[in-house]
Amino acid sequence: MSLSVCRIPAKNFKQTSIHKRHMRIAHISDIHANYGSDFNNQTFEKAAKLLNGFEADLIFISGDLTTDGLLREYEFASEKLAMIDGKKAIVPGNHDEKNLGYKLFPEFFGNTDFIRCEGNLTVVGLATSEPDKDDGRLGRNRHRLITRGIEKKKDFTLIGFHHHLVPIPNSGREHNIIEDAGETLDIILRNDVPLVLMGHRHVPYAVKIHNTLLVNAGTFSCNRTRAHFGNTFNIIDFKNNTIIVTVINVEKGKQEKMVKYNPHDGYYINRYYDEKKRID
Hints:
- The chain is an alpha/beta fold.
- It has one domain (15-270): 4-Layer Sandwich (Purple Acid Phosphatase, chain A, domain 2).
- The chain has five helices and 13 strands.
- It has helices at residues 41-53, 71-81, 101-109, 140-150, 181-190; strands at residues 23-28, 58-62, 88-91, 114-118, 121-125, 156-160, 195-198, 205-209, 212-216, 232-239, 242-249, 254-261, 268-270.
- The protein has a seven-stranded mixed beta sheet with strand order 3-2-1-10-11-12-13, with no helix packed on it. Strands 4-5-6-7-9-8 form a six-stranded mixed beta sheet, with helices on one face.
- The longest helix is centred in the first third of the chain and has 13 residues, at 41-53.
């Protein structure tokens, strides 16, 4: 695959500054709504109440709204998501594509791939999932969609999908990184896309590579949590050219600012690796 078609010349593109107004995005993932043991309704309702209190401008949901992609699960997920206030941008996960679930997703939640503009923010949502497979990939057409989103030339570009681009610590033996992760990462890094949102592994995490912050959300309401991470979601604030990622623990109601990153001047604190540093 030639990457030249997906790169925008530097003279035509520059991620300059984030919208001057304070903007807040909630990043949630892996709800796994079903009528079996996967879904914790009490946790969901508590998480939804906490989330609504943050009054986010946009809620980005990075997949696995259901467990088996069944019609009754889609109906249930739609009913539960109505409890969350605000605009939503939703992409499917691998569980949502099971059992012909890929045909149901557009009926309930809209296009699986999209470009949306919210003020001076461009949101590119992509489906990495494929029917009845746990693996994921993007492919050339979605790589072109990334390029089209960048070409909107808004102050800030956010790209989101379900599967992860890099291995996620504390999530067990590695599998299911998208098949074309290398090509995807290259396109994103070459164009200085500041923020990528992902899910799938049920643990929160963030790391900066080159000029891009990769952020993973934990599971919002699934019982399949890992060790002591519990159910979590992310609050991402954009203010004064700076991104601040806060992880919300649903059970404890605890907030921890984990990452501060200014893509304009490169300032970066990551408390996943330096717990002693404080983020104001």
